[in-house]
Amino acid sequence: MAVVTLGAALSVRAFAGVDWRGTLHALRSVGSAAPLVFVPFLGAALLDSTGVLLLLRVLGRRVALRQLFAIRVGTEALHYTAPAGFLVADSAAATLLHGRFGVPLSDGAVVAVARRWLVMRGHAAYILVGAFLSAGVLAGVSRRCGVGPWLPYAVGASALVPLVLSVGVGAAFVGKASLVRLQRVLARSPWEWLRRRTASWRNGAMALDARFSRLGSSPSATWGATVAFLCCWLLESVETAVILCLVGAPFDLALAMAAEVGVSLIRAVSNVVPAGLGVQDASYATLLPAMGLSPDAAAAFVLIKRGKELVWIAAGYGLLAALRRRIAVAQSDPKASAAVAVAPSSALQGVVGC
Asked: Which of 163, 237, 315, 354 has its CA 20 to 30 A from that of 43?
């Protein structure tokens, strides 16, 4: 509650000087073009689902793209509304894949980690591409703010953050036996209770390391998924360009990319706050006027972006409820239950100590 309150306070402060009559006028001018706001996310969800599909197929799991798409849209509601929402969404996706389509929880967990690895790789590429294509816009912001010409270089250098994290997570996929090594370290702990507990994890750790290596040894799938996730990031900029156009700015993809690459890393870091409440809003409220957008139009931009999120939150929770009902029906029918109910693998049970 304190985090949400702090986020709300940041939002109020960011828009303290806004003329809300001008903002309301900008919102009214959107009119019948409003549905265009929802198109980029649909494309991004489809691309994201395609990336996950490629990873699942390497593990020998067959789930239809439309089914993955439904899970992706459904779990987006959790991503927006829960603290550390990406972790909650990944856990829910693995649970739904297990309960609805019989994908073992261990494979769902491996795919979730692989997706995080490749999403961060795509994020690093996105920041570099965006900083290059929008260098002129970012340099103009630097000049107007009187801070020198360093902003394009600083934004480009920020790609090191997701790149380093991606390399760290990706070590598990290149035959390093990361979980087995962790188990060995814990087994040498001075605390007997910890040694006993981790002794039973070895088989599970070996099984999961094998799954990680199997994904890592399929470059066609991992790089294909990386391209899909990079395109998801690019569609964030398309969405921003569409919303900026709707509130009165010209359709300028370079301007939109400048805003998004400048905010994307902040948004990723602020994921501990539901939907980056306050942090994301204050970032847009500061950056967009520096790019020449009026404060009233910037406020309208943020309200439209938040309104779009509310629509997807409602749609996502509706889809989650429908998926849960289907799982309940399948589990209540012995024949259907036998088709989809697969016990969690001993590998995952061993690693998490179940």
From this structure: 163
Residue by residue, pLDDT tens for the chain (354 residues) are 555 565 566 666 666 667 778 788 888 888 888 899 999 999 999 999 999 999 999 999 999 999 999 999 999 999 888 877 888 999 999 999 999 889 999 899 999 999 999 999 999 999 999 999 988 888 888 887 776 778 888 889 999 999 999 998 888 787 666 655 665 666 666 776 666 666 666 556 667 777 888 898 899 999 999 999 999 999 999 999 999 999 888 898 989 998 888 787 777 666 666 656 667 777 888 888 888 888 888 888 989 998 999 999 999 999 999 998 888 887 776 554 444 433 333 333 333 333
> What single-letter DSSP state applies at residue 276?
G
| Conformational region of residue 31, where left means phi above 0, alpha means psi within -120 to 50, and beta covers everything else | left
Least Cα distance to 58 among 225, 214, 224 occurs for 214
User: What is the separation, in whole angstroms, between the first and last Cα of the chain?
Assistant: 31
What CA dihedral angle connects 295, 296, 297 and 302, to 10 degrees? 90
In DSSP notation, 303-319 reads HHHHHHHHHHHHHHHHH
Distance CA 239, CA 236 (A): 5
What the block records as the tokens of 4 is: 């949400």
Q: Answer whether 264's CB lies under 8 Å from 123's CB.
A: yes
Q: Rounded distance, CA 71 to CA 68, Å? A: 5
240: left (phi over 0), alpha (psi -120 to 50) or beta: alpha
Q: What pTM did the predictor assign?
A: 0.81
By CB atoms closer than 10 A (0-12, 13-18, 19+), residue 45 is buried
